[in-house]
Design a protein that fits this description.
Radius of gyration: 20 Å
Number of domains: 1
Largest sheet: 8 strands, parallel
Shape: globular
Number of helices: 14
Helix content: 40-55%
Length: about 350
Amino acid sequence: MVAMERRHVGDTDLEVSAFSLGTMTFGVETDEPEAHRQLDHFAAAGGTLVDTADVYGAGASEEIVGRWLAGDRDRDRDDIVLATKGRFPAGNDPAASGAGREHLTNALAASLRRLGVHGVDIYFVHGWDSAVPVLETLETLDGFVSDGLALHVGWSNVTGWQLQRILRVAEANGLTAPITLQPQYNLLDRGIEWELLPQCLEERLGVMPWSPLGGGWLTGKYRRDDRPSGATRLGEDPDRGVEAYDLRNTERTWEILDAVDAVAQQTGATPAAVALAWLRDRPGVASVILGARTVAQLEGNLDAAALVLDESSTALLTQVSAPGIPPYPYGFVQDHCDVSHWARLGTAAPAPG
């Protein structure tokens, strides 16, 4: 088994495995014994970062992770980098939500109880909250760090201007700033490359992509003109969120999947491993969050840890999946201004005219 690569998150001393284990399925699609087997397999493979949230299974995921942490007395807690999130309702009360001081304080306290720990390594705000001043959220997070409840903080699911405001307000007030961003990012959806990813490169934030396989699309299990059915996420719910079948059933998607399959055949790897290896090696990526229902799925995804794509394969995947750039302002900026970040990303310029 190839030792999993370790990376620093941004400019910090926090070191994480290049692939992390997402636990959104725990307590919902994956029962506790299977979840613990996943955690065991992940740790044995050299994985360190375990990512959960209070809303995953309405707290069940955190409880399952907590019992796993407590169950093996030979396991050193310091070997696991633990991340959780708060922002949305974790129970039946929709009013118990938001990025305000009261909710986040209560949410983190509940998360720590479920996890059975005194503090987490990263506490993420799970999304933007337009009803709460950013300063209040940042002051709350700063207090968590000062009190030892969180070592670092991060943010998930924000736009470019929102991330910019978060960072500038933190800087202006001497408050703890996020060290990491958790966005959707994969070969099918590279929208963060317009603003968020260049900003993370500029500010030295580590990127931790979720949905690295596009909700299963990049595993190669879906086919043209063959609407999914059966025991798959889209088979059970074809209209599921951003990965909905009708939303992604486009010629661009199939061209990307054909390229992934071609590289998979050339390398002898699975399509999933190819897509994950490409994403792992994108600029700014600190750790790719893997989510699986079963140990078998996780084991297959972890094959990407040993896969290194050659230059031609990487170029093919980057070119075929290039999102294109709207002529203004992005195309104009690329044509006339400093584009060092976009050059690093391999983003294609818009066609003339």
